[in-house]
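Me: I keep going back and forth on a fold encoding question. No explanation is needed for now; the record alone will do.

Assistant:
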Amino acid sequence: MSRLGWRKSTFSTGDAENCVEVAVSSGLTYLRESDAPERVLATAPAALRALLRAVKTGAVGRGAD
């Protein structure tokens, strides 16, 4: 995984260690937190798009209050 070209969000500032980083390779999208780079989640781009769409529309995300 270390050979992937990781990118931080443009919303990250300075040397913030609490960012989500993204890399794309071999048809998969990889996600990791900058403060725990050894933990990597791999997903298909379509599945990630569906999740982000659901979060943005409020279909998932809040849980029990």
User: Anything to note?
Assistant: Residues 3 and 23 are 10 Å apart (CA to CA). Strands lie at 7-8, 20-25, 28-33, 36-43.
